Amino acid sequence: MGRGDPSGNSWTPKASTFGAASFPSNYLVAYAENGISQTELDKSFKDKIKPGLEGIKGIDHMNIIGARDTSLDIELDASALEVYGLSPSLVSNAINSAATQSPIGSVEISGNNKMTRVTGNISSLYQLEQVEITTPKGDIVTLAQVAKVKAITESNFNGRLDGKPAIGMILYKAGSANAVEFSSSINKLIQEWHTSLPNIMFKNTYDSADQIKESISGLVREGIIGAVLASLMILIFLRNVRMTLIVLVSIPLSILITLLLMSQLGLTLNTMTLGGIFIAVGRVVDDSIVVIENIYASLEKAQERKESVIALATSQVSMAITSSTLATVGVFAPLALVTGVIGGFFRPFALTIACALLSSLIVALTVIPMLAKLLVLRSKPGKGHHDETKPTKLTTFYEKVLTWSLKNRIKTLLLSLLLLVVSIGGTIPFLSVSFLPSSKPPTTMYFQLKMPYETSFEATDAKTNEIEGVLLNTKDSNGEPVFKFVEALVGYAGKDDERTPYASQIFVQLNDKVDPNKVKDDMKAFILSELPNGSEVQAKSMEGDFGTSSTDFAYTLQGDDQLQLEKAAKLVKEKLSTFPELAEVADNLSDAKTEIEIAVDQKQARAYGLSASQVRDTARVWIQKQKLGDMKFDNIVYTTTVSLDKTDKNTLEKLGNIPLAGPNGSTILLKEVAKINEIKGAASLSREKQQQLVKVTAKINAADKTGVSAKLSKALKEVEMPQGVTPKISGVSSDVNDSFKQLFVAMAAAIFVVYLIMVLAFGNASAPFAILFSLPLAVIGGLLGLAIAREPLTVTSMIGFLMLIGIVVTNAIVLIDRAQQLRHEGYTVRHALIEAGKVRLRPIIMTAGATIMALVPLALGISGEGGLIGKGLGVVVIGGLITSTLLTLVVVPIIYELIESIKNRFGRMFKRNKNKETITTSSLEV
C-alpha cells in the first residue's frame, strides 16, 4: 500500500503482514481521574504509556485514537504573500535557515578537540515571529507580517469512554506471538502504571486471550471430571481399591512424561495440546487395565504367587497393547499431510496424543508390573475381586450371543451391514455441515458509523456523543444497564494514520443477561434511524476464533472495469440483504470520496512557458502542508509545519488564484492554465493475480452453514451480472470441501498405517484384515451420536472419526491376540474365539468404558467453551466407541473364523493337489 511523503515528491511503500496481525488482539483505554488535565494525560501517554506498549515482546503494531499532539502551525496569509511576492517555499527556507542547528566540524583549543556547532539562536516563539525574510525585490519582512504562528494541541481523532475523554489503543500482536503471554505482558504493565501513574485509569475493553483462557479452564475442568469418572468406572469393574490405584497411577505418570516429551518437541501448553492431553486421559489407562487385569487373573489361577507369574502375565498382553497403542499413534501420523489452518491447529494436538499414548505404554509395561508386585502379590488371593472360575452373568450372556453368531455368521453380518446402511442413510442427509464448531455469541461488539461524505468532523462528533448517551442509559428488562461500557472512537475507520471525518466507531460490551444477537440487530437499527439519510452502520462482533477467522460466505467479483465491479457489488449486497440468516454483509471497497482535479491545459501552459510538471510542483507547495520537523521554543518541542491558511484554500475560486511564476518573471494564476473541478474519486480495489476484484462477505447465523451457503449460491446465480464481471464463490463451503478432502485422505492413510502396524505385530495379514472390520461399526455410533446430539458435522467431528480408527481397533486387537495365543496352545478356531471373548470381555468393556466416561464431560459441553476441541469430537468418539465395542465382540470373531475357514479350505486344496502330484511322480518311477 503506498503512503505519501508530505515533505517531498516521492511515495514510500508501507508493508504490513496479513494473518494474526491483521486482526486486533487487545483494545485498551486510558483516561484521566482525580482532576488531572488532558494535557497531563497526553504527556504521560507520550513519555511512558506509548513506549511501554511498543516495547512489549510480540507486538506487531498499534493504532492510537485520541492522543493529542502539540504542534506549531505557521499559517501563511495568501494576500500578504502576494503583496511581497513570496511563496510558501521561500518562507520555509527562511525559517529553516534562521533556526538552523548543525555541526560544522571540530577545532583544537588548548590541545583538546572541540565540536563546533552553528545555531540560529532562536529560542522563543517571539524570536521566531521576528525572523526576517528577504523578498525577491530585496525588501525585508518579518514572519509575523506574512503568517500567524499558532501553538496547537489537538488530535486527528476523539476518544471517549462512558462519555469521558480518553485515549484508545488498538494493539495487534505478531502472528508468532503467544496470545496469553502477550495479554499477560499488557496486564503486567497496567499493574505497574497503577502505581507510577495513580491518576490515570486503564480499561482493557477487549482481550482476545480471554476466549483462549476460558477454553483452557474449560478443558482442565472437563479433563479433571473425565479422569474422576474414568476412575469410578474402573473401580466399579475391578472392585478393588489397590488395583484401581495402580491403574490410576498411569494417568499422572503418563501426563508427566508427555509434558517432558512436549518440551523436547517445542510444544507449548495451549488449547490444542491441553485438549490432546485430556482426550488421551481415558485412553492412557487402557494399557494399564489390560496388564493389571491379566496379572490379577493369572495370580488368582496360579498355585504359587511369584514374580514370574507377573512377568508371564505382562508378556502375554505386551504384544497386544504394544500393537494397539502403536496403531492408535499411527492414526495421527497422516495428520501431518493436512495443510492449511486445520493442519496447523491439529498437528500439535496429534503430537500431544501420540506422546501421551506412548507414555502410557511405557508405564503399563514397566511401572504397573512393579506396583502389582508391591501391592497385589502379597495380598490375599480372591479378596475383593471377581472369581475367574465363576463366569458372571454378562460373560455367560456374551458366550451365548457369540456362539449363536458364529453358528449364524451370514445372518449376523447381514444384520450389521443393514444397521450400517440404515445409520448412514438415516443421518447424513439430515446432518448440518459447518467448517468449525460455532461458539456462543460474543458480548463484545462494535458499530462502525459512516455518515454522508460531506459531514464535518465536528458534526460526526456531536452525533456520536448523542448516541453514546442513549446507549449508556439503555436498560434491560431487570432495570440493569445493557452495556458495561461504551467507547467511542470519532474519526476512526480502521486506520490511525488518516482521519475519516464522517466516520466513527462505537465499541460496547453487553451484560451477561441479554441476547447479544438481538441487541446487535436492535442497536444497529436504532443507530441507523438516528443518522442522516445516506448513512451506513455495520455491526460486528469481536470474535477471537483462536486465530482461525474464516469468512462464512464470500462472493468474489473479478473484472477489468471498475465501475462495473462496483455496480455488481451493489447488486450482490442487495440480494444478500434479503436473507434473514445473514449478518455483517459488507464489501472490501473503500469509501468513494470526492476529490479536486486540477486539469492542466497543455496548450495554454506552453503559451506561458510552463509545463504540467511545473504547474503540479508549484500547486503542491501552495496546497500541501510542509513539515519542518521538531523545533524547540520556550523549552517546548513542537512538531512544526508551514501551510497556507485554510481560509485561503477552502474554495475552488481561491485555489484558482494560486500564483505561478513564469520564465520571464511574470505571475500567472493557476486558473489561467488549468480547469479546477470537484469530482467523485474512485474507490480503491484489491488485486489478485493481476486482476481487479471486489469481495462481498457475510456471516451466516445458522448451524448448517454449508446448506445456507448452497442456497445463497443458487440465489446469486439468478442475479444478472454486468458485462465483464466474473463471480466466484468461496468461504465456508470452500473451506469445508478442502479440509474434508484432506481429512478423508488422512483417514485412508491412517487405515493403511494401522493395518501395516498390525501385520508387523501379528506376523500375518489375515488377523489384521479381520480387525479392520471393526472400523465401519464405529461409523454407526459416530453418525447416530451427531444426529441425537444435533451437532453439525465439522472438522472437529471429522477428527473424532479419525481418532476412532485408532481407538476402535484396540479392542479387536486385544481379542484376536488372545485367540491366536489359544490356537497356538491347541484350541480350535471357534473354541479359541469363545474362550478369548470370555477372558477379554471385561478388559475390553473396562477400557472402552474408561475412554467413554473420560469424554462424557466434553460431549455434554459442561464447560460451555470447548473451542476446536469441543462437543462434536466427544459425541463422535463416544457414539462410535459404544457401537464398535458391542459389535466388534461379535463381528470380528465371525470375520476371523471366515478367513481361517477359507485359508483352511485353500490349504486342503493345495495339499490335495500336492498329494496327487506326488502319487503321479511315484507311479512314473515304478
Commentary on this structure:
It is a single chain. The chain starts with a strand and ends with a helix. Mean pLDDT is 82; it is low at 1-12, 545-549 and 922-926. α8 (241-265) crosses α11 (340-375). The chain is built from 27 helices and 29 strands. The chain is an alpha+beta fold. The strands form 9 sheets. It has a 6-stranded antiparallel beta sheet, with helices on one face. It is 54% helix and 19% strand. A hairpin with a 6-residue loop joins β1 (2-4) and β2 (11-13). The radius of gyration is 39 Å and the shape is elongated.
Q: Can you tell me the residue ranges where pLDDT is under 50 for at least 5 consecutive residues?
A: 1-12, 545-549, 922-926
The main sheet orders its strands as 12-11-16-17-15-18
Mean pLDDT: 82
Give the oligomeric state. single chain
Question: What shape does the CA trace take?
Answer: elongated
Concise synopsis of the structure shown:
This protein is an alpha+beta fold. It is 54% helix and 19% strand.
